Structures are given as structure tokens and as C-alpha cells.
Amino acid sequence: MLEKKKKLMEIGMKLIAEKGYHNTSVQEIANKAGISKGSFYSYFPSKKAFTITTVKAFHIQVMEELNQVDVKGDDKERFAKQIAILIKYMEQHKDHIMMYFRSNILIIEELDQQLTNVRVDHFHWLKDHLEKIYGEQLQPFLIDAIIQTEGLLHSYFHWFVLENVDLDKEQAGEFIVRRLHDLITGMLKRESSGLVDMAQIPGIYKSTRRSTLEKQTLQKVLNALKEKIVLLDVQQSKKERLYEVVRLLEKEGLEDCNIVVIQGLLAHFYAYDILIEDVSKIATILNIELL
């Protein structure tokens, strides 16, 4: 079923990329996929839900690909390899990128929120890399460096995706990181202060919010925790209390992230050996110490 849903998403996003959201009907997507309109609705309640789910799934998949890159001890090389992977991914999924361009003109609150999440995750992805590579010296120029990096990447992505300019994907990451290094070192040498600082940017970018991938991973562990609670040989009333703790963890871990509260909530599971592994995973994801 998952493969059928994935195929349906691929066909639908190709049509939207070609024709636009409003000019693409559910019937047309279903016909192209070789299924009935009713079958489409068994996967997605609406065309809007289809578009939002597809954008979200694509973003999570991209972030998972990037986070699998592991070049120990060399932050520049890791960043370069991630950029190269991003370009290769864009080549493989140009239809999806085009759907982004087609869809972000829509006045759909949920889609707008998802695209905002993508932008914020992208901001923190760049911020994390630049801080690791350049350290404390970059702090007065951090936002300027992020803006310049975004400009460099977006320009190349534009020419690669929209103008069909061929790039040497193996060399692209290293080339872009070298040019970025020239920009940043020049700024550090010549400028006494940055043009934009953290106080000037919108609040959503200042948050230490969980990334999309972290949220996805945390939710999987919490779901596994729920399934294991079912297996516990305890009274139903105790199980219900543990379920309530999981619900509170979903709120705190995914939204509020109050460390003291989370530590207290996790303590409810210590008495059950079957739950300890998942408790440890949650602590690792949220970067907190267990009490």
C-alpha cells in the first residue's frame, strides 16, 4: 500500500508541476495513476491534503538523506557532500521542485505552514554548518553569512532546476563551499560589523524548535512506546496514566521542550524494563540527561 501511495504522489506532483495546482484535478491524477477517483480518496481526503502530504514527505526524505552524510573531523567536507547530495536529489526529483514553485502561490494555510517549516529547517541547517566551520569569530556576521550562503545556493539551484543548466554534481559541493569560504573570510577581514543581526530577523528563525526530521524521529519513538505500553502486565488504569504521560511528552517534546518537565515525565517509565530503551532514545533525541 505504501508503494502505491508513493507512486500516486509521484504522478500527482508531476501533473501539478506541469499544469499547476488549480489546473490539475483529482480525477486527472487518478486517471494518470490508473486508479479510480474513490481510490485516490482512500489515500488522501482531498487534493489539498495530497499536496501538503507530498511537500512534507519530500522535505523529510531530503533531510534524512543529508543527515546520513558522515565525514568525521571535517565540517567543510561534510557540508560540501551534503550540497552535492542536495543537487543530485533535485535532479532526480525536478517534478517535485517544480511543484514547490507552483504550489507556494496557493492561499492554503496548512501548506504555507509546511513551506515555512521548510524555510526554518533550511535556515538552521545552514546555521549549524556555518557555526561548526567558523566558530565564535563568525557570530557578529552569522546572519549575513547565512543570507549570502542562501543566495549562492539558490542561484545555482535556479539555473540547475529552472534553466536546465548542467552541473558537475560531484564537484559542485566543493566548488560552492570554496566560493562561500572566500565570501566569509573576506567579510571577516574587511568588515567591522554585520549588516543584519539576529535581532532583526523574524522570531520563527530564532527559535530552537525541533527540526522536521527530529520531530519525525521523536514521534516514531513515542508511537513505539505506546505499542509497548499495551504489552505491560499492569492494571488498565496504570496503562491509561502512562498513555497520558506519552501525550504530554508529545506536547513538550514537539512543541514546548521544557527540559525539567520532560525529565519528570520520563521518570514514570523507569519501573518497566521493556520501556527503558525507548526512554533512552527520547533523551538522546532531545539532548537531555535522565534523572
Short description:
With 291 residues, the chain is an all-alpha fold. It is built from 14 helices and no strands.
What does this structure look like?
By secondary structure, the protein is mostly helical. 75% of the residues lie in helices and 0% in strands. It has helices at 2-19, 26-33, 37-43, 47-67, 75-92, 94-103, 109-134, 142-161, 169-190, 203-206, 212-231, 236-256, 259-266, 273-286. α1 crosses α6 (94-103), α4 runs antiparallel to α5 (75-92) and α5 (75-92) packs across α6 (94-103). The two termini are 42 Å apart. The model has no long low-confidence stretch (mean pLDDT 83).
Rg over CA atoms: 22 Å
Largest sheet properties: none
Order of helices and strands: HHHHHHHHHHHHHH
Annotation field: number of helices? 14
Helical amount: over 70%
Principal-axes geometry comes out as: flat
Q: Give the amount of beta strand, in percent.
A: under 5%
Terminal CA distance: 42 Å
Q: How would you state the average pLDDT, rounded?
A: 83
Give the helix/strand class. Answer: mainly alpha
Weakly predicted, low-confidence segments: none
Give a count of the beta strands, DSSP E runs of length 2 or more.
0
